Amino acid sequence: MKSSACKTHVIEVRGDFACFTRPELKVERWSYPCPTPSAARGVFDAIYCHPPEFRWQVKKVELLTMPTYLALRRNEVSAVASTRNIGQWQKGTKAPEALRADDSSIRQQRQTMALRNVRYRLHAQIAPWSGLERKHSAFDAQFIRRASRGKCFQQPFLGCREFVAFFRLVEDLHAAQEKDPPVKLDQDVGFMVYDVFDLETQNGNNASPSISLFKAVINDGVLDVPDYTSDDVRKPERRAG
Question: Which helix (H) or strand (E) holds 179?
């Protein structure tokens, strides 16, 4: 798969809150200062995706606001609804039972260090699967049509579903960067989650989890993202057979 042959698309996203959780802090969530590649991919997927024919390759993240943290305490539930119960609810053979955050037996209060008032410019390419490269211009055109009209399959979000993202297509990147350049920020973020699925398989989000990492460094407010196939991305060893 060669993503370099495809057009680079740029969208600007903003939101009141965001949280891109660092995995080393499992219980108490602490956000990275900017979106992970998987979070950025999720925004593009929400606008236009077709897993059997292509995937998104994130190339760059520009920070348009300085990271500002906000401490939140949220009620979460430790229980989950079973697929069997959901099936019964759908058939009407059993009355739905809500999982309530005010139920002290399953309620857990968690600390979250989130970001507030965020804005980013996300750069990504459509990377067709092998044998479908001839279609990449049609994929590009479809994404531009959808993004320019504000269309999406689901509302994009910034790390957590409750942190809604609003987006717009950047058609003149040079003008946008002159008017609104990235913030002056240099930071060695350390190892950042690249994605939670194997992006080299066409199963996409239906595949088994496969955590990958890369060394993230923000230079002048810009995080450059290596290609998933690059040696700079640390991935689990593939099992033979």
Answer: helix 173-179
**Sign (positive/negative) of CA torsion 131, 137, 142, 143?**
positive
CA distance 62 to 45: 19
Residue 192's contacts (CB-CB under 8 Å, 6 or more residues apart) are 32, 36, 37, 213, 214, 215, 216
pLDDT in tens, 157-194: 999 999 999 999 999 999 999 999 999 999 999 999 99
Residues 22, 30: Cα–Cα separation, whole Å: 6
Query: Tokens for 179?
Result: 């008017």
pTM of the model: 0.86
Provide the 3-class DSSP secondary structure of residue 156: coil
CATH for 3-234 (3.40.50.300, 3.30.70.2660, 3.90.550.10, 3.40.50.1000): 3.30.70.2660
Long-range contacts of 210-215 (CB under 8 A, 24+ apart): 210/235, 210/236, 211/23, 211/236, 212/236, 214/37, 215/190, 215/191
Structure-token match 């802090």, residue found:
25
Q: Give the sign of the dihedral formed by CA 131, CA 135, CA 140, CA 146.
A: negative
